[in-house]
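Field: COMPLEX_INPUT
Field: COMPONENT_COUNT = three
Field: RESIDUE_TOTAL = 1170
Field: MODE = joint
Values follow.
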Amino acid sequence: MSQPLLSLKGLTKAYPGVIANNEISFDIGEGEVHALLGENGAGKSTLVKMIYGLVKPDSGGMTLRGAPYAPSEPRVARADGIAMVFQHFSLFDALNVAENIALGMENPPALRDLASRIREVSETYGLPLDPFRTVGDLSAGERQRVEIIRCLLQDPKLLIMDEPTSVLTPQEVEILFKTLQQLKAEGTSILYISHKLEEIRTLCDTATILRLGQVVGDCIPRETTARQMAEMMVGSSLKTPERSGRTLGPVALDITGLSVSSPTEFGTALKNLHLIVRVGEILGIGGVAGNGQEELLGVLSGEITTDAGAVKMAGQPIGRMGPTARRQLGVLTAPEERLGHAAAPDMSLTENALLTGVVRERLESHGFLKWGAARGFAERIIQAFDVRTPGPENAARSLSGGNLQKFVIGREVLQDPKVLVVNQPTWGVDAAAAASIRQALLDLAAGGAAVICISQDLDELMEIADNFAALNEGRLSEPRPTEGLSVDEIGLMMGGAHGMEVAHA
Amino acid sequence: MDLSDIDPIKLIATLMVAATPLLLAAIGELVVEKAGVLNLGVEGMMITGAISGFAVAVETGSPWLGFLAAAAGGALLSVLFAILTQVALANHVASGLALTLFGLGLSALIGQSYGGQKPPPMAEVDLGPLNDLPVVGPILFGHDPILYLSLGLVAAVWAVLKYSRMGLVLRAVGENHDAAHALGYKVVRIRVLAILFGGACAGLGGAYISLIRVPQWTDGMTAGVGWIALALVVFASWKPWRVLAGAYLFGGVTVLQFNLQGVGIAIPVEYLSMSPYVITIIVLVLLSRDKSSAPGSLGRIFHASS
Amino acid sequence: MIRLEKRPQPSRAWSMATPLLAVVATMVFGGLLFAALGKNPFVAIQTIFWDPLFGEYSFFYRPQLLVKGAPLVLIAIGLSLGFRAGIWNIGAEGQYIMGALAGAGVGLAFYPLDAWYVFPLMVIAGALGGWAWAMIPGLLKVKFGTNEILVSLMLVYVAELILGSMSTRLLKNPEGYGFPGSRNFNDYPAGNSWIAQDLGMHWGVAAALIAVIFAYVLLNRHMLGFHIRLSGEAPRAARFAGVNPARLILLCLGLAGALAGMAGLFEVAGPAGQINIDFNVGYGFTAIIVAFLGRLNPLGILLAAALMALTYIGGEIAQDNLGLPAAAIQMFQGMLLFFLLALDLLTNYRLRLAVKERT
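Field: COMPLEX_OUTPUT
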């Protein structure tokens, strides 16, 4: 066997209370697309940060083409031909594309020369991009192109991609895969991190599977079924949520002709939005984050008020009501951002239970708080949703992402909502917790509530939703029954591939 | 009263002098804020610069050494701010206030023995016949070197921020410190350097008041110029040339109200003296709707979690 | 190498210990400073912190503790509510002045009427004066998004100039032989805030205690206090919880202004006695330190204000006995805030020696 490009030997990294990576060893060959597969919290991020020089291993080492490789900082990694496309983009909204790219290079040429090189590379790889546009105005797919081109301009030997498709429409995924295949053909190795099994089966040559910080196996994805990989990744067989046959009741909530501008600078305005959700229905709203999802949640929670008639609950206009009045009526919401929006990081779980529960759970009288009752409510959430924490006096930020998400969803579900709106309910949550959250939503709908589930995870929506609509650049597509919907149709509802017209301009 | 006693040419020449302390402090703070740090201690650093510059100038007889000491004094005080906000991760607002309170006390302490003294004068730049040109002469030429330095500084800050790699990195750090960290830039180091630069500039601005504009030492003599400098950065939407324009505008207001006091206009002195503060508020109101150009990470605490 | 590591939740123990540590650190460094000024540091520290309480003339100084502490408590309580909500009113000094002017103005308008309602009206006017002055940054922030830090501070300078004008013109004592300054409220029983002057008791002391209890109940038991804390901790979560940010801003600024205004009125109608150019002595700024030193907690503020009052009194004694400059105390107070902010790190972070651990 020829010498591998990068070889990891016994990499170990411990954080207080958790061993993020334990004796990780594997090789990445030249021109190989290598998948790194694992759940949230399996240690994938820590591992790539070590390869990219952001984190130093406690023990173990790496060799690059046989030579010892121990990057002290990303600069060194880049100089050695390692490039990385981040999951949460490392971009600067207020700067333009060329400036952003220059920041990721060691010795960038003058801005004008750089711009022409950007155009060149973007044409070669079919990734159209205008070097002088402000990054904050770009779509998620275009932003990712900025990152990829930034990497490509340095002729990397190894390109690390961290969950690259989570922000892309199916059509954009196809374009990305073509680019990656082209790179592979040119001899570039790719370390591809994902938990999406079908993608890995299409794209990758080999896969290493991580669980709880350890390598638990490797495989050739093309010769392995998705189910086998999933079980290696999770460590047990998964229970898929059960949906019982539901009959849809009368209209619970509807939005008619809603247009609002975004309260944030690089936000997306909602344009002439219509939707109806019925009692007992789960309406899935797909689309890449940043296309108006946050704004839609704000409109429903009452954080953004509109014309009274634009939002109606069972025929009653509620558009002008604030969050408290809507909770009184039974319209509850769970925003995407757990820390800082759905929950206050430094406050205790009791206080966070109070945050939305005060109205429906009657946790106050004449403005005075009933701390005992609030604590009781927090304990009920912890119990019912299996939130792992020593007790309700702990701060929200001390919980892991999955546990906090269970707390946030549980807090709303337990308040007996008439309408529940959730945004990215399982984002960054491990598979077991995700399954229990989905089950809770299904149960809620079966119990006679209307649920709107906004999510980027199309598999999730196909699994639980009755009807599907896509949100794209602030516009919502006509909802269609999920049964029998094909991936291509969904992709087109999501607006196909963004910004491709530039290529032909 | 007689408004014709006010000579417009002299007015412009003096407004430049009146504006220079503000300009120096504001251009320094602009760099600090561009790096994502909100240092509310400008007033404290200015007054510290004012007294350290004054003391050294008096002791050595050299105004140049005085200005050098002022820059060093302002920078030294800003080190405290840097330690608090960048190392101890303290709240920017509270730390800035602490700096101002501390600076006011420290300067009053050092300044005790310097009340009533005269600092050595700084020679004006002699450009020979140019000074004697009508109108432009007194306005453009014949100022002290520090005034020209302040103008040079504005140009330099503008050019560095706009064209240089260093400026790009600085802006990137201020815009999104997490992303800058992910790319491997030393966020804390860059911010500390920016804070030091801001401190030195504020120190120079303070010394300009005590050595050239007034020139003598009194407690609390910066009288809020540091705070106005902070407002000016907002007013200028973080753009160097607008800082210059804004500073000269405020300088104009200050000089004009002095002149009005001088010609005995029928408005009580106190109300004229209020005008710089009131105008600052009005300007802030007019311009605060547009916050879009504020650096994205301004005032946020950075802690690399990994 | 020492590494910082964020605690899963703030440490309660450290949050109580840091103010004490900060005081100790300030004493050490303050001592060094005094030594540098050529004073015996031990004598200086003793003069400032011990003598006012237990020294030979403590019978004279102890009542002063109430006199200096009351305005600090009143102002700091108001500020702490705003600071908790992330509203940075640093112009309490101006609100204090305007409260004093409004209250004194009402009192002087009634002079020499001897009626029971004069003083209550003065208190109301004082509170309104401070409230109105604080409403300027409040309304500007709500309406235009103007930065309240800068506006409230600019208004301090404006208030000082108004004070100057008032003491030399409108409110000047007509029988004052041309000297600046108003009539003295100590000569006007109906408009006087003293309860028992020998003990240092005036209505401001009573008001300060009520304010502490009020703030404690508000923050710990009431919905509004919860919303205030929530807005400071996580503004977005507060909106999500249904808090109206504009109302909260006006409320916090208004309360702080009213309390500062009342503090000013009690001061002018008692300890200071009259409106004059040098009426304000920086309580509004020292109260910022008090608020932080007391960890924005009402009971903590009470203790912190006592300590700060002590440094004021001790500082004056040191000035008389040791020739220590007045500015040294001001610096001392600034230093205290520095140490407090720096040590605060320990509340939210753990310091760890980064030793390589093998597993």
